[in-house]
Specification:
Elements (H helix, E strand, L loop, with lengths): L2 H23 L7 H13 L5 E5 L5 H5 L6 E6 L11 H10 L4 E2 L4 E6 L10 E8 L6 E8 L1 H8 L3 H4 L1 H4 L4 H13 L1 H6 L4 H17 L10 E3 L2 E2 L1 H9 L1 E7 L1 H18 L1 H4 L7 E2 L1 H8 L2 E7 L3 H5 L11 H5 L13 E8 L13 H5 L6 E8 L5 E3 L2 E4 L2 H6 L5 H9 L8 H6 L1 E4 L3
Parallel strand pairs: 1-16, 2-6, 2-9, 4-7, 8-10, 9-11, 11-12, 12-13
Antiparallel strand pairs: 1-13, 3-5, 4-5, 5-6, 14-15
Helix pairs in contact: 1-2, 4-19, 10-12, 11-14
């Protein structure tokens, strides 16, 4: 059992014990400690969590690893809350086990990100790990983006509220909730302000490093800037396979960042002056236009974070940009952006992507295709007549350590190579257009 799982088990026991105590005080003596333990034991032993997928089959990372001649590269982008480099360790270990990548680099490479638009500003950390299977030669390079450094200074404004001068006045549980709120609540607000462009530049830099350099070519440490997609990058882009994984606000960052790259490639003068160099060649752009880019969005929030925002530059023109006979086919950014959106109905901050969303709210140059994964991350309990009780916190933060989620990212669904766990526990419904 992981530390996170142990934490939620302790919290669940505390909740059930509190419910039992309340009922005893109200005269429900027959539902004492033994009943509470029985309910908890039943909850822990029975796993009735649902997993339903609607869309088209997708292969997962394993199919990319099996391809010869190119590298497989995965970029992870976190969501709200302060993160430190290494936050993906548990997920990465689970993913490596699922993919049978039994060896890894002894050390990670850590790049302090910079961008031409922000030459003196630290845009976060890109931590890179190399995984491989020495028997069959399969290898994967994992890029972990930590952009928290950009928002950390602004969030320091709330440090006084977490100080002993104020915190001792709160009830213990309220104090814990207030600290959580102060850590996570400001990030979406900050992202809508002046820090948005630096965060998007941090993502663009991470994507640039992934697209232009292999593990051996990456700097080991220090402050560096990736200068663009030139002719030397075209071969990497044509051969390599890219996968992006994001969580909560990270999904909005990935989508905004990818759309910004599309706009940058189409209109570089809009973003960069003569003092800011950004190289890209027609060969590199053409290679990118032939790529399929899977994006696994954990605790997807695209619908909520679209509220009040401007529409993309190019929308509602999928047939023109994404069909070979379309008038703007040669102006697309990607051949296909495959969005797999994970949401737990008991996660108060996640949403499925509704029909018609991509046509109106996603840039047509990405050629987006949507698959929704409706999955119970938190267990649903039935305690003391209170039905359908689930921990919303666990439902929000538990995606990256859920075995079904990891197996689906690794080996997909609706294909012969899908994990036995997915075939047994998840229902797949293919949507026909």
């Amino acid at each position: 059992m992981t530390k996170r799982s142990k934490f939620y088990t302790v919290k669940t026991r505390w909740l059930l014990s509190s419910l039992a105590a309340a009922m005893l005080l109200s005269g429900c003596a027959s539902l004492g400690k033994g009943a509470a333990e029985a309910v908890l034991e039943k909850t822990e032993n029975e796993d009735t969590r649902q997993c339903q997928v609607w869309g088209e089959p997708f292969p997962g990372i394993e199919a990319e690893l099996a391809k010869r001649g190119g590298k497989t590269k995965v970029l992870f982008v976190h969501g709200v809350g302060d993160h430190k480099p290494g936050y993906t360790t548990e997920f990465l270990e689970k993913l490596a086990k699922e993919l049978n990548l039994n060896s890894r680099s002894g050390v990670q490479k850590n790049i302090e990100l910079n961008a031409p638009l922000f030459p003196g500003q630290n845009l976060g950390n890109l931590r890179v790990t190399h995984l491989l299977n020495e028997q069959n030669g399969q290898e994967l390079t994992f890029y972990e983006l930590t952009w928290s450094e950009i928002t950390r200074q602004e969030k320091a404004l709330l440090d006084f509220d977490n100080s002993g001068e104020y915190d001792f006045r709160r009830a213990k549980i309220n104090g814990m909730l207030k600290k959580f709120s102060n850590d996570t609540g400001p990030d979406p607000i900050i992202y809508l302000g002046q820090s948005r462009v630096p965060i998007l530049a941090s993502y663009a830099q991470s994507f640039c490093w992934m697209a232009t350099k292999d593990w051996e070519e990456l700097p080991k440490s220090g402050k560096h800037t990736c200068m663009g997609l030139d002719d030397s990058s075209a071969g990497h882009i044509a051969r390599d396979n890219y996968v992006i994984i994001s969580h909560s606000l990270g999904s909005r960052i990935v989508m905004d960042g990818t759309q910004r790259i599309a706009s940058l490639l189409a209109n570089p003068e809009k973003y960069l002056s003569s003092n800011h160099k950004f190289n890209y060649s027609p060969k590199a752009v053409q290679a990118l236009q032939n790529k399929r880019l899977p994006i696994f969005m954990l605790s997807n929030q695209l619908p909520m974070l679209q509220l009040g925002r401007e529409l993309p530059e190019v929308a509602g023109k999928e047939s023109s940009y994404c069909e070979p006979k379309g008038a703007d086919y040669k102006k697309r950014m990607l051949n296909e952006t495959e969005i797999i959106a994970f949401s737990d109905p008991n996660d108060l901050l996640s949403y499925g992507i509704p029909p018609g969303f991509s046509e109106k709210y996603i840039d047509s140059r990405l050629c987006a295709k949507i698959t929704n994964v409706n999955i119970n991350i938190a267990k649903v309990m039935d305690a003391f007549g209170m039905t359908d009780l689930a921990n919303p916190m666990e439902a929000h933060v538990g995606y990256d350590t859920d075995d079904r989620v990891v197996a689906m990212i690794a080996r997909g669904i609706g294909n012969p190579g899908a994990s036995p766990l997915i075939k047994q526990r998840c229902e797949f419904v293919k949507e026909v257009k």
